[in-house]
Sequence to fold (650 residues):
Amino acid sequence: MSSVNRETPPHGGRAGMKKDLPERFRDYRHVWVFIELERGEVHPVSFELLGEGRKLADKLGVELAGVVLGPTGEASWQAVAQAFAYGADLAYIVESPLLVDYRNEPFTKAMTDLVNSYKPEILLLGATMRGRDLAGSVATTLLTGLTADCTQLDVDPDGSLAATRPTFGGSLLCTIYTLNCRPQMATVRPRVMPLPQREEKPVGRVIQYKLSMLEDEIVTKVLAFLPDTQSVKANLAFADVVVAGGLGLGGAENLQVVTKLARTLGAEYGCSRPLVQKGWMPAERQIGQTGKTIRPKLYIAAGISGAIQHRVGVESADLIVAVNTDPNAPIFDFAHIGITTDAIRFLPALTEAFTRRLSPHSRDKLAS
Amino acid sequence: MHIIVCIKQVPDSAQIRVHPVTNTIMRQGVPTIINPYDLFALEAALSLRDIVGGEVTVLTMGPPMAEDALRKALTYGADRAVLLTDRFFAGSDTLATSFALSQAICKIAEAFGPPDMVFTGKQTIDGDTAQVGPGIAKRLGLLQLTYVAKIASLNLDAHEITVERRAEGGMQMLKTKFPCLITMLEGTNEIRRGSLDDALRAARSQIVKWSAADAGIEDLSKCGLRGSPTVVKRVFAPASRAVKAVQIDTADKLLRDLADELIAAIFARRPALEHELAFEGA
Fold:
């Protein structure tokens, strides 16, 4: 999200305060990205963050590092190789049998020790459940600032991180600075930033670090991991086509106009936040700042007004079609095609029209 | 068992409006509610108390009007409510908030007995940071269990607790010791209706009100704006796209024709989509 409409009066007395970094933080340099390794695979959000981290590091004229905390052996080194492929200049690796499954205690210890030893100025983490669990602990341990769910990261002329995120329940945006502390920490939700180009590169400089902790010192034990069944996973984040409904649908009984259209298009379906709060759809179907961020080729929003909360989650779609009865709904400010009509009546007609257009007969025509 | 539940009074976000000219939040008349995520924490705590016995203390930091949220929590069956309120807390970010709340929890421990568990919601609907829970845990040295879907078992003698924790791609079964801090996942229970007795008791209960000094906070430099490493520099409304949505004219048209027109517009902009949809759709 770019550009500004209008500045509100300074928020509190310190807004105009000079960013004057205490002596002990002046040698904090370089940009770090936490490489989230889960069950042998790197979470894509880590690559997205490397893409953002690269830009910040280039602006600052510093290095970009990937931080891998994982089990001893191949999986962790694979993650290191991937960090280089997605733009890191160097990597920190902490290998330990204590870091096989995510647990707050050893991961917090590993990350805070690394930060205290090597002093990064910026530390980015994915706003996944793991990333948020870890970021909150690390920031509190280091007594530094942490900005959650950023939608835009930039560097000011004076070198400080400008972290922009939705505020007031997603109705406005704000830019947040971490004043007299380092590192400046921020989390970003999956799919908010684009995936950078992968480039096969040899593994560069790697700094190995030893976790100074014993299993006996860790109280929390992982008894089991129960993987989700496929049906639980709404694959919204990676769907090519998404249809979603909002309060304009009037009632839970009208959600079927959305699901039917989705089925016809082989699409995923979802909803805006109020529908989850009303219990009309489960939380994993929520699209927006506090739900899923999507980047589909086609997004059809039915009866969704388009609060910022929702907007930041869908803005990266290639083509946004909005159906809403209110011609002044904010969704028409960022949709590409708008149609001012009642979604409850219009979606069934649209489903039928798509069925006709995409019928086997037309399909043959297309294939030939 | 003594359980402390941290709650927050938030504006009902469904009813927030932004002033079209000044881009400022129009707070007047917006009703406040208990942060909906906190209700899952409160219910989990009340259920646990009902099974093993003990007391539930609800705690909030906020302006004097946050008393309403606490009284509401009492009607659900909480045993005691503490309001931490002081102008020194104004402008707190998550680090300063976790400091103030952790100090208040220490004071509650002194006054009413040490907590075995602290519950919070997974995040608030106004700040959406999910940082205050972990912050309190770290400051108090409590073991931290976030995104808990279910408390599977409890061993009171050994002080052991087993929970199901939501993680990426699955559920972790974790065993740890209490005292601990749990942030409760949404949708895991439903807040009770609360009995008539509770409603009557809530109406006449005295809410414990503490200032920073009452809560034993000596170092005010860790509170409010002064104690907050982050600062909000700018608040703004997002800019509109340079070009607004192309509106399809709906006047005097059959729904069917309108639908065909929309599909034509979609495929005109993204020709490749037609091919993909024809083979993906059912």
The first strand of chain B starts at residue 2 and ends at 6. The mean pLDDT of chain B is 91. Chain B touches chain A through 96 residues (CB under 8 Å).
